[in-house]
Structure formats: structure tokens, C-alpha cells
Amino acid sequence: MLVFDQVSKSYKKGSVKAVDDLSLHVRPGEIFGFLGPNGAGKTTTIKMAVGLLRTDAGRITISGYDIAKDPLKAKAVMGFVPDNPDLYERLTGLEYLNFIADVYRVPVDVRRQRISRMLEMFELTNAIGDLVQSFSHGMQQKLALTGAWLHDPDVLILDEPMVGLDPRSAHLFKDLMHEHCDRGKTVFFSTHVLEVAEKLCDRIGIINKGKLIACGTMDELRDQAKSEESLENIFLGLTEQ
Ligand SMILES: Nc1ncnc2c1ncn2[C@@H]1O[C@H](COP(=O)(O)OP(=O)(O)OP(=O)(O)O)[C@@H](O)[C@H]1O
Ligand SMILES: [Mg+2]
User: Fold this and answer.
1) Would you say the CB of residue 43 lies under 6 angstroms from ligand 1?
2) pLDDT tens digits, residue range 159-212?
3) Which residues of the chain fall below pLDDT 70?
4) If you take atom 24 of ligand 1, which residue's CA is the nearest one?
5) How far does residue 83's CA lie from ligand 1's centre (Å)?
6) Would the CB of 191 count as within 6 Å of ligand 1?
7) Does the beta carbon of 44 sit less than 6 angstroms from any atom of ligand 1?
8) I need a surface site. Which of 23, 60, 154, 218 has the fewest CB within 10 A?
9) Other CB atoms closer than 10 Å to residue 85's CB: what's the count?
10) pTM
11) Angle at CA 231, nearest 5°, toward 226 and 234?
């Protein structure tokens, strides 16, 4: 469960209001897609949720833990992949994953099982002994996603996770998200790929100029937009200048 309660954030001493009074309740078992034009406030929202930025106002809780007041507990139950993962390039892929598993105290037998499953799925098994700096962009993305999954977090927060994944990996990754949520966990991710959001997400939120301008299931969004159209048309209509 991930809850935003009247969250705001400005940059440059208040001259840029990036997130404006955002309230949102992402439930257990839900895949939630967070959409919005470039500069709408998605990454800012995500950075506040994971404790990389402080809110100016409001509160964010992850599985009941306030990210500002109880950051270690909140971080222990979440997994995060930023839009441009900066991995430790001088570790091998396997050293990186073991480091992450150590940080989250994942028992050795459990981590072995999870790592080997994810590597097989992402076809990374052969490369995992190589230095991260030799990985392609997509391979680094897969490594970051594998790391975020290792401690089986209650809430996964992913900023444009599909960027760089080849079609097969993207397909398997979507299955993985479903499987995670079927076990009562939560996935919150930003994307610009509306077709993926339409098919994959239980609910969708659209942010524009820092404000949440729509939120709900596809049916609810159609009702709100008073049209039977695709998510693309709803999005374009709602975010028109
Ligand atoms: N570090 C920063 N300093 C000043 N302004 C910033 C900073 N980061 C973001 N902004 C501004 O805040 C607003 C929201 O940016 P944000 O990165 O959250 O958008 P986004 O929805 O993630 O966009 P994109 O789809 O391009 O990733 C933009 O106006 C941006 O210029
Ligand atoms: Mg962004």
C-alpha cells in the first residue's frame, strides 16, 4: 500500500511547483500506472515516495510507514528503480546483486533462488559474472529490476521501467508484475507507453503540471472523459493546453 496525502513540492524557492497537493491511495494487489506529459511531476513524486526528496507539505506512507519519520522501515518494504539507474560499474553483476541482497538481509538460499530465476527470465545468466560497466543499457535495466525484486518488497516503485527492455523481456516483466500483485503486493510505475498502461494497469493516474487530473480504472477514466475512446485519446484530451 502506498499513500500520498496532500503532497506538494516546489523547486527553485517556490518558483516551479512540480507537485501540487497530490492525494492518492495505491492499494495492495494493484498495478498502478502513473502517466503525464514531460515535466508533469512524475519523477518528483517518485523521488519523494522513495525518500530521495523531501516533501514541502503532506505525507507519504509505504505499508503504513511514513517515509519522512520512519525512512528505514519504509525503505525496507519497498523496491525502487529510478529512471536512469546508476549501478556500481566496477562490481560484477553477481557482486552487485549480492550486495543488494546483503543490504536487505535476504537469506543466502532465498537470494540464490530469486537471482537464478530472474537471470534466466532476463537471459542474463551468461553475463552475470562480467563487470556492470560492460552491460548494455537494457542489461543494466534488467539488473536494476532484478535487484529491486530480491527482497520481495510490498511496494515496487519504478520510474519508466520498460525503457530499454527488448520485447520479450518487456513481456516477461509484465507477467512478473502481475504475479507480484496477485500475491497482494503493489506496483506503482510511471510510463509514457499508453498501450502498456491501458492493458497492464488496474488503475491509472494522470498528472499534469503537478496536479492529479484523472485517476481510476480504464472504465472510470472513460466515464470521467465522457468518451469511449482509447487511453491515448483520453490522455491527449485531458492534457491539452
Ligand atoms: N532538480 C530540479 N530543479 C529544478 N526544477 C526541477 C528539478 N527537477 C525537476 N524540476 C522541474 O519540476 C517539474 C517536474 O519535473 P519531473 O522530473 O518530476 O517531471 P516528469 O513528469 O518526471 O517528466 P518526464 O516525463 O520528462 O520524466 C518540471 O518543471 C521540471 O523542470
Ligand atoms: Mg520523469
Assistant:
1) yes
2) 999 999 999 999 999 999 999 999 999 999 999 999 999 999 999 999 999 999
3) 241
4) 38
5) 12
6) no
7) yes
8) 23
9) 19
10) 0.96
11) 40
Contact predicate 84/144, CB 8 Å: no
Domain ranges for the chain, please list them.
Answer: 1-77+155-160+186-241
Q: Would you say the CB of residue 39 lies under 6 angstroms from ligand 1? A: yes
Is residue 205 lining ligand 1, measured as CB closer than 6 Å? no
Q: Hey, what CATH topology would domain 1-77+155-160+186-241 get? A: Rossmann fold (3.40.50)
- What are 131's three cell numbers? 563487470
Give the amino acid at 204: I
C-alpha grid cell, residue 59: 505525507
| Pocket residue to mutate for ligand 1, from 44, 50, 160, 213, most atoms within 8 A of Cβ | 44
User: Atom 1 (ligand 1): residue with closest C-alpha?
Assistant: 11
| CA atoms of 205 and 211, how far apart (whole Å) | 10
